[in-house]
Design goal:
Helices cover 2% and strands 48% of the residues. It is mainly β.
């Protein structure tokens, strides 16, 4: 189940070393609106996005709106783009997103104050122009039917907004009891349960696997089960304390399925799917998804619900047969290419070695470079592109090394190796 890639590097070329970024360059905070023209009483979203390099954190998002507006939220998500595991140096870039649901109650043209967020103890104001025009009811622009996840940035978003989620208006059954569970479609049978954790509506978190290696992708699915007309009013993500989380950007537009919970028929709807990567071995808790609901059946009462807390069994690859230099957490299926230019240089000068790793899984943040007399490998400049295909996280990461040559003659730069664990083999 283990793989090793090795590539001999024999050519040379000069390159420019990376410049160290200041704190201000490492933090980008922007804000946007999902609509710039709305009707009185119509809601829209204000979204803040903070991109923080290194181990920094973003907390305490704040939005102040004019007196004629009402606001709820924020709902927040945090996603990580890259990280090393085990004893290696940690490299991470986090994207923190906060969303507020805002309702305009008076006509006019308004410029909202830009939201703020605290990044590593500093209050940062988001950039962006937040101007909205509020028109009388019936005079707003016609809008295509859209998901409540629509984002001014076109990417991450909250699981679901405070509006009615798609599918929650599904007609309900005259007879709520199940006739014959074997008549359910296969996916609905997978979602069957013996008992109701809570009556009328409840949340459930499921994983595509309950046993994995450190650094291996586990896909979590968040479901809501309901058998009454419902409106989702708030939500809070599981904490995922021991995991790196990445949004699979799956918009939950599929209609609900009908499944059986005990003797009852339930609608069940997928709210979201996320990819998580365990950061250590052990029995790791995912944590609880929480939400509140209202509905005609319950009058003015608000129902609070929390999901099950999944516990995943996370292990390290066995020590026996583990290749030398393996870093715990390098799990996936990768390819490696290298380019070295030019073929001639002078003693004391640097040449460039560009190594590109691509594939599926959490891409390694460090590579093992050879130690050779007369050859000095300097700290690499890294670039990457993380993507999702078929529900799996992958992409590419490049390492641009400046290599100083200290001896004359024909120089063998040695071999770069990438030991990694391939769970599919």
């Amino acid at each position: 189940m283990r793989q090793k890639l090795a590539l001999l590097l024999v050519a040379m070329m000069a390159m420019v070393l990376p410049v160290r970024l200041s704190w201000a360059q490492k933090v980008q905070v922007t804000a946007g609106l999902t609509a710039d023209v709305v009707e009185v009483g119509e809601g829209f979203y204000v979204e803040l996005r903070a991109s923080v390099e290194g181990g920094g954190s973003a907390t305490s998002p704040n939005l102040v709106v004019p007196p004629s507006f009402s606001v709820s939220g924020p709902s927040t998500t945090t996603t990580g783009m890259s990280m090393s595991f085990g004893q290696g140096r940690t490299q991470m870039r986090r994207t923190f997103t906060a969303r507020w649901f805002v309702v305009a109650n008076q006509t006019g043209t308004f410029t909202l104050s830009n939201p703020t967020v605290i990044v590593d103890g500093n209050v940062v104001t988001a950039s962006g122009k937040l101007k909205v025009k509020v028109v009388p009811v019936g005079q707003g622009p016609k809008k295509p039917k859209a998901s409540p996840r629509s984002s001014p940035f076109g990417g991450f978003g909250s699981f679901f907004g405070p509006n009615l989620s798609p599918g929650f208006n599904t007609p309900f059954f005259e007879d709520d009891e199940v006739d014959d569970p074997t008549e359910l479609e296969p996916k609905a049978r997978e979602l069957m349960m013996k008992d109701e954790p809570d009556p009328w509506v409840f949340l459930r978190v499921m994983a595509d696997k309950e046993r994995a290696m450190v650094g291996e992708q586990v896909t979590l699915s968040y479901y809501v089960y309901f058998r009454a007309d419902m409106k989702l009013t708030s939500q809070r993500e599981p904490p995922l304390t021991d995991f790196l989380r990445m949004d699979l950007d799956r918009t939950p537009t599929d209609p609900p399925l009908i499944t059986a919970v005990g003797k009852w028929r339930y609608h069940v709807k997928l709210l979201d799917q996320v990819a998580v990567f365990p950061l250590r071995a052990g029995k790791l808790h995912v944590g609880e998804l929480a939400a509140t609901f209202t509905g005609r059946r319950f009058g003015s009462r608000e129902l609070a619900r929390t999901s099950n807390d999944l516990v995943l069994d996370i292990r390290e690859p066995p020590l026996e047969g583990r290749p030398s230099g393996y870093r715990v957490g390098d799990v996936g299926k990768f390819r490696m290419q290298a380019e070295v230019k030019p073929r001639e240089t002078t003693v004391g000068d640097t040449v460039a070695v560009l190594v590109r790793v691509s594939g599926r899984g959490m891409l390694p943040s460090e590579l093992l470079v050879p130690e050779r007399a007369g050859v000095e490998w300097l700290k690499p400049e890294k670039k990457d592109h993380i993507s999702v295909a078929g529900g799996r996280v992958g992409g590419w990461r490049s390492f641009g090394y400046a290599v100083r040559i200290l001896e004359e003659g024909k120089v063998d730069l040695g071999t770069i190796e990438l030991p990694y664990w391939d769970p599919s083999r």
